[in-house]
Amino acid sequence: MKSMKCNEEWTAPExxxxxxxxxxxxxxxxxxxxxxxxxxxxxxxxxxxxxxxYSLYAKIMGFSIQQVTRxxxxxxxxxxxxx
Length: 83
Hints:
The structure is a single chain. By secondary structure, the chain is mostly helical. The protein has a domain at 12-61. The protein has helices at 12-25, 47-61. Residues 1-6 have low confidence and may be disordered.
């Protein structure tokens, strides 16, 4: 597989992860030749794979992402309907 040219801002693990993702998706192109249509219809087996891909893709495209999680708050004043 052709390896991606390392972005100056990327760490070695990020570059390795990107190349692994491309291999998993069956994309055998130089980084400069890849466009968004190469990713249409591709599927990941885990959410972690998808998140890693999107994070690295965001870096390439020049935008940032953030993940927000919310904890469900308990209603402290609520009385149970049965005991």
